[in-house]
Amino acid sequence: xxxxxxxxxxxxxxxxxxxxxxxxxxxxxxxxxxxxxxxxxxxxxxxxxxxxxxxxxxxxxxxxxxxxxxxxxxxxxxxxxxxxxxxxxxxxxxxxxxxxxxxxxxxxxxxxxxxxxxxxxxxxxxxxxxxxxxxxxxxxxxxxxxxxxxxxxxxxxxxxxxxxxxxxxxxxxxxxxxxxxxxxxxxxxxxxxxxxxxxxxxxxxxxxxxxxxxxxxxxxxxxxxx
Length: 226
Ligand SMILES: Nc1ncnc2c1ncn2[C@@H]1O[C@H](COP(=O)(O)OP(=O)(O)OP(=O)(O)O)[C@@H](O)[C@H]1O
Prior knowledge:
This is ATP-binding cassette domain-containing protein. Residues 2-226 form the ABC transporter domain. The chain is an alpha/beta fold. The chain contains six helices and eleven strands. The chain has a domain at 94-159. A hairpin with a 2-residue loop joins strand 4 (56-61) and strand 5.
């Protein structure tokens, strides 16, 4: 993955102003953006995904310009071909596992049928060991299963990169260790570039790759460890 980001956005909430001035470039397969809560990591990730619009700047991914304010380019989120794993996984509570994964195919805003399973959905159910719970709803799953469903939903559309917002924050410590290892293995197996944001130094240490440090809306440092 080659990614280049240079974006600016002013966020106002009442008397408070937050200034995002994020600039970095990477050609890593594993990029970790590490920083304290409130540093601006989620805002930057949302801008890359197309879920939030910078005031100005440039975002390039694998030679494609996703956003360029000077040329009025703003590729819609669904055309950016990036998967996004939300901090709380954002699964649909009324849909079962199979339907939640099927939703990632995004063939319009519809309720995926519980019958007639697309091949890609079957593949990810098997790959993540979810076939047995395919009929269960998110509230009836363990934390690790919920995370796997969210990962499957992000991967089913065959994105060219996966963006992960604090993927382990919702897990208890033991499960966190296991799911870190799972994500590590998944990245090696699929060879899909991943950009992960976290405030947990252990995530940065174990997931490795190109680690960028973010502070007060800016990328303040970087380290390559693998
Ligand atoms: N819609 C908004 N309007 C105004 N300010 C906002 C808005 N969303 C976020 N902010 C502010 O922008 C700053 C950066 O928020 P962001 O969610 O990017 O932080 P973060 O580094 O991802 O933190 P965390 O690790 O807690 O998720 C925070 O100070 C936050 O209060």
